[in-house]
Design a protein that fits this description.
Chain lengths: 279, 264
């Protein structure tokens, strides 16, 4: 895979995705530069996970084109297994292989896909376990680890394939609150090391501190994007504002959905009536 | 007089014990133990059956069972993968096969294999002779059952496992072989062990292929001895011999199921 500096790490043009009659992505145009960290935020059902899963073709786009590091993913003849080697992915539910030890989780794809020898694969695996702070867990089975540890192993598993791009699909959403920090710390370190990252997340603090760019999606379109200060600090769009007020002040806005309740959220005075149904 | 709750419960419990003991007492007292022993427990006949019942009959029963199980497992796995295939004709063939062979008596299939194949291919022989015929004959039926079990096991492995494997660059085939199928087999070990127990008993159908003194298995050996001695003792010996195999197997299944309940 050749990577020319002129091409972005990820380029998406007019991406559409439907599940049966339901159109989830309604024309996305989007780029991620090399070494850039992009956080995608938005309400559930906004299509942000689907967008991420389209990037490595876990979901087949209905229309539109996607390039990753200059390779067109939407080319019907793309060598998908070869391209995916360069794209790491971390799932909300970890998806570690429960029948393998932590070390084997990290070596199996190196050996079967990259054809690395056992010694080489284990050396890479241990280096990456060390990177996520779990070098003492090599012999453990996934079920013996906490959720936070499992997710860090999952990150190390992806890193063992030396990816050029990492996709994170709500990596902390399934974790107990006190375990979120460890995973975010690993991700922050990864960002500082210059990894290109596309992160779907609800962690606004992470987006604000680590992201180079924040993308707000709603209803299958990109509503607005820009530096975190702008999108999170001074959103231009009504939908972004109402989403942020719901995320950042959930107890207040939760009352809105009650029948007979007429109060408008102070943060979003002009909330249109049709948007209120989605609350 | 009205009984209190605890008294009522105690009374009910005692009545149940009493009924149980009464039934057993009637059976024990009414049976003619002398004649029973004469018909089913002649020590001299039991002694005469050893060691052949173990060295030949039990050994052959185990061999036939394992042969049929191995054939059924391999073929059943292929059928399961065909049922899940993207190639529609594979799915049709596998579904038709499973429906057909689950509906046919194992005896009939064994008969068709044992006598049908030699007629169809006169110049060829089934490898392994009687052993091969039994392994294939019983395995064909077992494969139909195992295919459904294995398919269910594969589908019970969470979708995320395949996604994670594909994301790491594995092909569908490699992901199936190294990630999904190993997990599926852990899930289906208990039902497959049940299949093994059923096959152990089905191996008694080998007699339709005309077994010899060397290829005889437990049930046929019991019946032959019964005919020789005009006494039913050999049936008791044969029955107990099966239990030597099936009881430990049942225990293994129970253990595995327990371990599984803990892991999930």
């Amino acid at each position: 895979m050749t990577t020319s500096p002129s091409q972005p790490a990820v380029e998406i043009r007019d991406l559409h995705k439907s599940f049966g009659p339901l159109e989830v992505l309604k024309g996305i145009d989007f780029e991620v530069g090399h070494g850039e960290v992009v956080c995608v935020i938005g309400p559930s059902g906004s299509g942000k996970s689907t967008l991420l899963r389209c990037v490595n073709l876990l979901e087949e786009p209905t229309a539109g084109r996607i390039w990753v590091n200059g390779t067109e993913m939407t080319d019907p003849d793309v060598e998908i297994d070869a391209v995916r080697r360069g794209i790491g992915m971390v799932f909300q539910s970890f998806n570690l292989f429960p029948h393998l030890t932590v070390l084997d989780n990290l070596t199996i794809a190196q050996r079967r896909v990259l054809r690395r020898g056992r010694a080489e694969a284990e050396r890479v695996a241990r280096a990456n376990l060390d990177r996520v702070g779990l070098s003492d867990k090599a012999a453990a089975f996934p079920a013996q680890l906490s959720g936070g540890q499992q997710q860090r192993v999952a990150i190390a598993r992806s890193l063992s394939m030396d990816p050029e791009l990492m996709l994170f699909d709500e990596p902390t959403s399934a974790l107990d609150p006190e375990l979120v920090g460890d995973v975010l710390t690993v991700m922050r370190k990864l960002a500082e090391d210059g990894m290109t990252m596309m992160v779907v997340t609800h962690e606004m603090a992470f987006a604000r501190d680590v992201a180079d760019r924040v993308v707000f999606m709603d209803g299958g379109v990109v509503v607005e994007q820009g530096p975190p200060d702008e999108v999170l600090g001074a959103p231009r769009h009504e939908r972004t504002r109402s989403f942020l007020s719901r995320v950042l002040d959930p107890t207040h806005v939760a009352q809105l959905g009650r029948p007979g309740e007429t109060a408008e959220p102070p943060e979003a005075p002009g909330l249109p009536a049709d948007d209120r149904h989605q609350l | 007089m009205k009984l209190r709750r605890r008294q009522r419960e105690r009374l009910s419990l005692w009545l149940q014990y009493l009924a149980f003991v009464a039934v057993i007492a009637v059976v024990v007292l009414a049976a003619d133990w002398g004649r029973l022993r004469e018909a089913f427990f002649r020590v001299d006949i039991i002694e005469s059956m050893f060691p052949t019942v173990i060295t030949v009959a039990l050994r052959n029963t185990i061999l036939y069972t394992l042969g049929a199980f191995a054939f059924g497992l391999v073929f059943g796995t292929i059928l399961a993968l065909m049922r899940l295939s993207r190639v529609a004709p594979y799915r049709w063939v596998a579904t038709a096969y499973i429906e057909l062979f689950r509906g046919l008596p194992a005896l009939l299939v064994l008969f068709l294999v044992g006598y049908g194949i030699p007629i169809a291919f006169p110049e060829r022989e089934i490898p392994g002779g009687v052993f091969g015929s039994i392994a294939i004959g019983l395995g064909l039926t077992a494969a139909a059952y195992m295919a459904e079990t294995i398919r269910a096991g594969i589908q019970a492995v969470p979708k995320g496992q395949m996604e994670a494997a594909r994301t790491l660059g594995m092909s569908h085939f490699t992901a199936m072989r190294t990630i999904v199928i190993p997990q599926a087999f852990r899930i289906v070990i208990p039902p497959l062990t049940n299949e093994l127990i059923l096959l152990t008993k089905d191996s008694s159908l080998a007699y339709v292929l005309g077994v010899t003194a060397q290829t005889i298995e437990v049930t046929k050996f019991g019946r032959d001895t019964l005919n020789d001695r005009v006494n039913a003792t050999p049936l008791l010996v044969a029955g107990l011999t099966y239990l030597v195999i099936t009881l430990p197997l049942s225990q293994v299944v129970r253990r595995l199921e327990l371990r599984y309940a803990k892991a999930r």
